[in-house]
Amino acid sequence: MTLEGLDELDKKIIHELQTDARHTSSGTIADAADVSASTVRNRIQRLEQQGLISGYHADVEYESAGYQLYTLIICTAPVPRREELAEAALEVPGVVRVTEVMTGEENVHVSVVGADGDDLSRIGRDLDELGLEVADEDLIRNEHVDAFDGFDADCEDRS
Amino acid sequence: MTLEGLDELDKKIIHELQTDARHTSSGTIADAADVSASTVRNRIQRLEQQGLISGYHADVEYESAGYQLYTLIICTAPVPRREELAEAALEVPGVVRVTEVMTGEENVHVSVVGADGDDLSRIGRDLDELGLEVADEDLIRNEHVDAFDGFDADCEDRS
DNA sequence: TATGAAAGGTTGAACCC
DNA sequence: GGGTTCAACCTTTCATA
């Protein structure tokens, strides 16, 4: 079954780019899928234009870079302003991700990077000044990411 | 000031790769930094080997791909088993990110992708069977990511 | 560690089916 | 839609300082 017009080739492309966006060439995917490299290039271009792939980025280990305080700040926003505040939070220096959740009090989760307590104090203050109430603040011990297996053709069966 | 031996060139490289890991060539960075392309390539290789850059991946808009249920599942793990369970959770089909937080009851945050309620039920059951107690479950309305500005040479001043 | 040069792979664009 | 061609670009490898 294809979702939203995504066929197996699209899914394979997404899966490969999710796994390694920089060292995977169109030709490699093309060989594995038995199509030409330009077909893969056309598909990638389409996926980017449709916004299905919204970007590519390097995963950085902040601790190794000397930023010991990779931290999750959980905030509460008034629902009508949630989206606006989430976007504003992204502009605060040190903020690397903002997740808006639908329900509950703690509806904006902000991931931030800091080198010391002063950084965190400033970020907390900045968020507060925007109108985000800081409900909780926790050091992130570890973060693991993985490509979504739903796009992996070799892993279709899910109980 | 350089952190952990990272100089301005390293930081610039990381920033560029965080912004667009696929369409940024060594040559482009080299021109902007007034060094040779080979130097940039050597640095990138070093950053990858040191584990400072741990990977590159495509950002996928799951909703556009037909997976309407991009969801945050907040779990509680016994502290001694937290890391082990977090890694195990990553293997559950549909799980795309696991964040371990240091303190508090809700110390494992799991981001999952599902097409329907059945997917979510299964994922919840799988996490539970691992030994992760599901404390809360929330639809993710939106997720914004941004490159860390601490690596951006044009943005060093932070109040 | 930074640089430069040559060979081979990769990309994007225009074009054809 | 998919495929071909080709010029421009990129990367790899190795040699050099």
Automatic annotation (TrEMBL), chains A, B:
* Pfam families with a match to the protein in the record: HTH_AsnC-type
GO MF annotation list: sequence-specific DNA binding
Q: Which InterPro entries match?
A: AsnC-type_HTH_dom, Tscrpt_reg_AsnC-like, WH-like_DNA-bd_sf, WH_DNA-bd_sf
Q: Which residues form the HTH asnC-type domain?
A: 6-68
Q: Which domain of life is it from?
A: Archaea
The keyword Phosphoprotein appears for this protein: no
| UniProt keyword DNA-binding present | yes
Q: Name one GO biological process term.
A: response to amino acid
The chain's coiled-coil residues are: none
Gene Ontology CC annotation, any one: cytosol
Q: Keyword set for this entry?
A: DNA-binding, Transcription, Transcription regulation
Q: What is this protein called?
A: Putative transcriptional regulator, AsnC family
Which species does this protein come from?
Answer: Halomicrobium mukohataei (strain ATCC 700874 / DSM 12286 / JCM 9738 / NCIMB 13541) (Haloarcula mukohataei)
